[in-house]
Amino acid sequence: MIINNRNIEKFINYSGKKLNAPQQSIIMGVSAVVFQPYINRKNKQLDDNTRDMAVARSIGKNITGNLFDFITRVAAIFTVAKLSNYATNNVKNDEDLVTELKPKSKVDIFTPNLKEDFVPRPKKEFLKDFKSYRLAMGALLATGIAVFVKTTVELPLTKKLTDYFYKKEKIRRQKHDKTNRNE
Fold first, then answer.
1. Which residues cross the membrane (predicted)?
2. Is there a contact between 140 and 23 (Cβ–Cβ < 8 Å)?
3. Above 70 in pLDDT, residue 1?
């Protein structure tokens, strides 16, 4: 894709570098909750009941899906951060080289144990890379947890919310139809 607009290019670069997985899920979730029901409501190719169900389903599905997606990502990144403490060689300032990395204790299961493959780098660069590693490992862990959460929690909750919003949508449509007939 070729982007000619400088502001769009800046935004894409900024969001790719600065927004982490939970922030991205919030952006996607809010957009979906705002736009999908509106689009479904305006779809004149569907009968009223199907349209009401589509609106309710999109609201219920987006609320539960994005809420649990956000919670799962935050929890996974937090867990990885708590279980990835490390010990390095004695490094005093940002320019000193980090030459070794090992887990601080046995509970630090997400700290890579890089005996031979570790590339020495300045402390500042190491900290930046390790932060990226934690975010990536958190996103990977969240993906695994999401499979379980989607089937056990999200599906039943989506059904309940869909039923709730379907009733609300029918009431809204009936009021709308009634006011249109009175005009």
1. 133-153
2. no
3. no
